[in-house]
Amino acid sequence: MASKKSILYLFDVDGTLTKPRQVITEELKQFLLDKVKSKVAVGLVSGSDYVKIAEQMDGAEVAAKFDYVFCENGVVQYRGGKLVSSESILSHLGEKLLQRVINFALGYMSNIELPAKRGNFVEFRSSMINICPVGRSCSQAERDEFVKFDAVHSIRQKFVDALKGEFADAGLTFALGGQISVDVFPTGWDKTYCLNHVADQKFEEIHFFGDKTMPGGNDYEIYNDSRTIGHKVTSPDDTKEQLEKCLSIE
């Protein structure tokens, strides 16, 4: 095996290291920081912002122990708990196009009937717009109910298809985000963006672990990128099992 400094393991968060929007278990946290980090460099790459990632890692002091934290697909970059770089979707696209997207999304969602609708349907982030038909203010029970409903009725996939049709020439990508939302970002600002930040480190291997690796999922591009070795996982427990095999950890 190559030396620790020449290998990087990157992890999606939701569905990979934690249950969606939940906090990492103590067992997996210690496993990553004690056993995995002793063998390879470790990083997180998520569509969420740093505050949400830190919450799910059980605190900012834990998140800071990862060698890299790539927020919002890597468009916002932290190292050692410190902000290193960030880009702005507003500066990149301009207010007019952003409002067109938001207005279309709100109009589309107003015509969907769901088991529940709550608040915070559009969340503006540095690198993307996160659109949530059920509303990010939903309870865990309402989230679970939407997930089941979406699995049957393909609410989000139909939404993505409508957005792609409306903004075909706008240079935007629309992807299923987590369990309940759709991510909207400039084409190229998917999770492969984070690989630009480690190019100068000359890693011999970069491994990526994620659960949304199917076409349209927000792990798809980085999972299939020629610069990474992709590992599809189904849960945090599966991630741990695969890591034990990859790194021969007992």
Structural notes for this entry:
- The chain is an alpha/beta fold and 250 residues long.
- The protein has two domains: 4-87 and 190-246, HAD superfamily/HAD-like (Rossmann fold, 3-Layer(aba) Sandwich), CATH 3.40.50; 89-186, Hypothetical Protein, Haloacid Dehalogenase-like Hydrolase, Chain: A, domain 2 (2-Layer Sandwich).
- 34% of the residues lie in helices and 20% in strands.
- It is built from nine helices and eleven strands.
- The strands form two sheets. It has a seven-stranded mixed beta sheet. The protein has a four-stranded antiparallel beta sheet with strand order 6-7-9-8.
- The longest helix is centred in the middle third of the chain and has 15 residues, at 95-109.
- 42% of the residues are buried.
- The model has no long low-confidence stretch (mean pLDDT 95).
- InterPro entries: HAD-like_sf, HAD-SF_hydro_IIB, HAD_sf, PMM, PMM_cap.
- Involved in the synthesis of the GDP-mannose and dolichol-phosphate-mannose required for a number of critical mannosyl transfer reactions.
- One of its GO terms (biological process) is mannose metabolic process.
- Its EC number is 5.4.2.8.
